Amino acid sequence: MRILLNALVLACALAASGCFLAENAGPGHPCSDDSECPASYRCVTVSADQRSCEVVYPPAPLETDAGSVDAGPVPTWCQDIRPIMAASCVASCHGADTSGSKRTDFRLDQYAAIGGVNGARDLAARIKARAVDTQTMPPPGNPAPSATERELLRRWIAGGTPLCADGGT
């Protein structure tokens, strides 16, 4: 009987926390204006017929420092950033398979927009805000970039999001 009671209490607690989490919607939550988003989020247009709560975090992607003079060359998509995205962002959320996020308006396994679907370069400010500054991406339970990888992301964005050192793909 005690086990059954404990299980019932746990189930109620989980259900209540689920309701609490749903009430405190965060990134990607549908909205019509800022009042429906947490304080650090804004209701933004993500497609022609969709608005959602997103972090709108200054500074603009190219206005930040790129690190010290000794930081080395600016990271490139081909050499440095694509592997980070593949390991931390693409698996089931922001690549060809979007089952983990249900977001189909962007892909982080591609550098630039293709067929109206934005790529990583197009989302540089958002990547910096979510993966580097606030570290709210990837969500808990998913492989996250190391501090060194987050620094590479920051330097890539600050350096102008270059594709490849040789200009190729």
* Overall number of strands: 2
Q: Main β-sheet, in a few words?
A: 2 strands, antiparallel
What is the radius of gyration? Answer: 19 Å
User: Which secondary-structure class do the elements indicate?
Assistant: mainly alpha
Distance between the termini: 64 Å
Low confidence ranges: 12-24, 59-64
Q: What shape does the CA trace take?
A: globular
Mean pLDDT: 78
Instruction: Count every helix, treating DSSP H or I runs of 4 or more residues as helices.
Output: 4
Q: What proportion of the residues form beta strands (DSSP E)?
A: 5-15%
Strand order of the biggest β-sheet:
1-2
Helix content: 25-40%
Order of helices and strands: HEEHHH
Number of domain modules? 2
Protein name: Lipoprotein
Keywords: Lipoprotein, Signal
Signal peptide: 1-22
Could you explain the architecture of this structure?
- The protein has 169 residues and is mainly alpha-helical.
- The chain folds into two domains: 25-56, no CATH class; 60-169, no CATH class.
- It has helices at residues 2-23, 77-90, 124-133, 147-158; strands spanning 41-47, 50-55.
- It is globular and about 45 Å long.
- The model is unreliable at 12-24 and 59-64 (pLDDT under 50).
Give keywords.
169 residues; signal; Lipoprotein; two-stranded antiparallel ribbon; lipoprotein; mainly alpha
